[in-house]
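Write out the bound-state structure for adenosine-5'-triphosphate.
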Amino acid sequence: MLNATDLMVFYENMLALNNISITCQKNRITGVFGANSAGKSTLMYSLSGIMLDIQKKEKMAGGERITLYGQLEFEGRDIMNMKPSNRARAGIVLCPERRRLFSESSVIENLRIGGYLATKEQAKVSLEFVMALFPALTKLQKRLAGFLSGGEQQMVAIGRALMAQPKILLLDEPLMGLSPLMQATLIRAVKKIQEESDISIIVAEQYARPVFPIVDYAYILENGAAVMEGTRDELMDNPDVKSAYFGMS
Ligand code: ATP
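---
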């Protein structure tokens, strides 16, 4: 349903994405793994269209540093030049790195803001879904987002993205800075989203180990290039992947 072909992104003359082609099928979980600076956020920004906004801001400030090439197709439509707001309307929703919640707003306000594209009925159904997915949020609805733990904030960030009625959910490093226990809780929730909806998911993470069990297909990025790809089982059986990403030889 989402196909990126030969994506290239330059920051000035630095190649941040080097000819990346990735596909995410309907209702599949696709992993994108890579170390710091491998290009994960650049990829997520390119898929969600935020990169066009960043590029526009730069132009307005007098610079022209960022260039993008390649093809991007969503449900058979060319979306390479589609604005991020229209991509969100079409169902491509980014849950950004470092959560970026409105810290002065409550949990429920953050969630409602996410539902700005939804009808009243959709928002009601989605809110119930989010609360069932993250029962811990039920009691925290009135708490200001800035006073939540990192894990709770991530629940709100994923919940807010779900309120936007995604067809494809882009999760950029959802586990960053969280305890193994919280990571496991969130990964179970991501799997549940797949099981209980027809949403597709792309999840970018630095550490593959906690996410690997739930991905259907994954790509490994190094210095902006996809150096390996395969189904979960193919990658699990690959000795290079095992040693580089699981510390096993
Ligand atoms: P991290 O885990 O640190 O978030 P990442 O895999 O998401 O890493 P990106 O943030 O996509 O990596 O960065 C890829 C490369 O592009 C890095 O070398 C980074 O320094 C560079 N980069 C990212 N954003 C910009 C920018 N706005 N201007 C210049 N260089 C940038």
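---
The first strand starts at residue 2 and ends at 11.
The longest helix spans residues 180-196.
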